[in-house]
Every structure is written in C-alpha cells, then in structure tokens.
Design a protein that fits this description.
The protein is built from five helices and 17 strands. By secondary structure, the protein is α+β, with helices and mostly antiparallel strands. Strands 9-10-11-13-12 form a five-stranded mixed barrel.
Length: 227
C-alpha cells in the first residue's frame, strides 16, 4: 500500500521523499528511486489523484510545444514575423501559420501584424537549437488590443490559472476583465475601466506572491469581494 509523505502545495526540496510505494506515479520535477518518489528541485508539491509533480518556485521559462504564449512583434521578414516571447529566444510566426486565410508572398505583412503588436499564439515546434515556431490558428489566439500586460514568474502560471482554470475564472468573473495567461509568464488584462484592471492585477500578484500559502483561493475570493 502506497503512502503519501507530503501535502498538496507543500514546499519541498531536492531529495525529499514525496511518496512511498508503487501506488503513486512520478511526473515533472520528480523521479522514482526504487520504491520511493522524490523531488529533484525546490518547489510546490502538486498531487492530482495518483500523479505527483513539483512546480519550481523560480526559474526561467522553458518553451514547450503546445504552450500558449504572449509576445511582441519585433521584426517583419519576407517570410513572416519575429516575436519576442521573453527569455533568450525569439520565435518565428510564418505566413502559413499566421492566419486561417491564405497570405500571399509579397503582401504587406504589416497589414496583419506590425511592430509592437501584442499577440497570443501557440508554440507548434521547438528545435534542439531552440528555434521556436508559432501559430495563430486556434481558439483564443489573436492580436491583443488595448489593456495592459504584466509579467509574472512563469513557474507560478499553473497556480494563477488554478485547477481546471478555477482561479483565473474567479478573477475574470469578479472583475469582468478579459484575461489571457501565457505560459511564458506574460498576462494580458483588459477591463471596462482602470479600477477593474487594477483589481485583477492585484489579485494575480497576490496569487504569485502567496502561491505556497494554504487557503489561497479563499484569500483571493475575500480580496475580490472587498472583505
């Protein structure tokens, strides 16, 4: 019979035993050593059913296929757009992945996306040399107009989104803001007024700063309700 040695959202350190026995399965940030599952980094333990993973508390964003990222168009080439998604690597949005409609070669690409545009896109491939290709073909992938863009620690993004989107949905519903969260630690917020946007920003920063706290959902709910 397996035994869980830690609590969900508990801070753990490298080498710490998270579970004993074969009933639990190791995932990201963990490894199995004979009968035990151990952490390989400092972070927050996350237990979902039988699966255990560790979310790092700090660390730079590591681009992965299928990640939704927010970036800024920084250059226009003959074949597409260069997008800054943060970190040491830029990404490429090619003509074929920029739109569901056909874009002819030689077209004025600035009519689609131009310098300074903020876009939400999906990573479709990451090469061994960290060449990143993006796509705008998918639900919610679009140019983000107006609003404000904030940076959060990318490792805190799962906590900001919440289990099955529960945390970010609560913030959206309470502030009536449109919010897009990028896996690269960029969050776009657009509300009906500055006050609503500011409240959404403060709630998101609360989640980032207190991501290891117990009862965080109740704290954020109380803040949003002005209690």
């Amino acid at each position: 019979m397996g035994e869980l040695k830690i609590k969900d959202k508990q801070i753990v350190v490298p080498g710490e035993v998270l579970a004993e026995g074969m009933d639990y399965l190791p995932s990201a940030g963990t490894y199995r050593n004979e009968n035990d599952i151990l952490s390989n980094q400092i972070g927050l333990a996350s237990v979902s059913g039988r699966v255990i993973k560790v979310i790092p508390l700090t660390g730079k964003y590591k681009p992965k296929r299928n990640d939704i990222v927010i970036g800024e168009v920084v250059n226009i080439l003959m074949s597409g757009w260069i997008v800054d998604i943060g970190g040491p690597y830029s990404a490429m949005l090619t003509l074929k992945d920029a739109s569901s409609s056909y874009i002819e070669r030689g077209a004025d690409l600035s009519q689609f996306y131009t310098y300074g545009d903020i876009i939400a896109s999906e990573i479709v491939s990451v090469s061994k040399t960290k060449l990143i290709d993006l796509s705008m073909k998918g639900p919610g992938l679009k140019k983000l107009k107006g609003g404000r863009l904030i940076d959060v620690t990318s490792s805190k993004v799962p906590r900001i989104i919440g289990r099955e989107g529960s945390m970010i949905t609560m913030i959206k519903d309470s502030t009536k803001c449109r919010i897009t969260v990028g896996q690269n630690g960029k969050v776009w917020i657009s509300g009906n007024n500055v006050q609503d946007e500011t409240k959404a920003v403060e709630a998101i920063m609360m989640v980032e700063n207190e991501s290891h706290s117990e009862g965080l959902t109740d704290k954020v709910k109380a803040f949003l309700e002005g209690k």
